[in-house]
Amino acid sequence: MLHAKEYEIMTSENGTLFFAIDVYGDEPDKPILVYDGGNHATFYRNSEDVVLLDYINKDVQKALKNSDFIVVAEIDFESDRVVRDYKARIKLFKKNPFTDGLK
């Protein structure tokens, strides 16, 4: 599992959540954010790239629970360039085995 060391979350005026993350090599394939309502989420870009997003802001946590999707912008932070952007479905689980036990 990869760990997102640098990422940002923004909310549009209509409440859409935008996640800005590092760019990854392969194209996303059926991306999905797995979320259990806590401080952390697991983002599945494709079958090879699973990214831990930790210490999610409390306001964003509430919004994630009430959203069907997020918009992801993969950014090359060195050149400050958006490489790709796409929607990812949110799947709520009571327990996330990848984040259970993380504070």
Keywords:
103 residues, mainly beta, 8-stranded mixed β-sheet
SSE layout and pairings?
Blueprint: E1 2-3, E2 8-11, E3 17-22, E4 32-35, E5 41-44, E6 50-53, H1 58-65, E7 69-76, E8 81-92
Parallel strand pairs: 1-6, 3-7, 4-8
Antiparallel strand pairs: 2-3, 4-5, 5-6, 7-8
Weakly predicted, low-confidence segments: none
Helix content: under 10%
Q: Specify the oligomeric state.
A: single chain
Task: Tell me the Rg in angstroms.
Answer: 13 Å
Strand content: 35-45%
3D shape:
globular
Spell the H/E element sequence: EEEEEEHEE
Distance between the termini: 18 Å
Q: What's the pLDDT, averaged over the residues?
A: 91
Q: Which class do the helix and strand fractions yield? A: mainly beta
Number of helices: 1
Instruction: Report the count of strand segments.
Output: 8
Task: Describe the protein's architecture and organization.
The protein is mostly beta strands and 103 residues long. The two termini are 18 Å apart. It has one helix at 58-65; strands spanning 2-3, 8-11, 17-22, 32-35, 41-44, 50-53, 69-76, 81-92. The protein has 1 helix and 8 strands, in the order E-E-E-E-E-E-H-E-E.
In short:
This protein is mostly beta strands and 103 residues long.
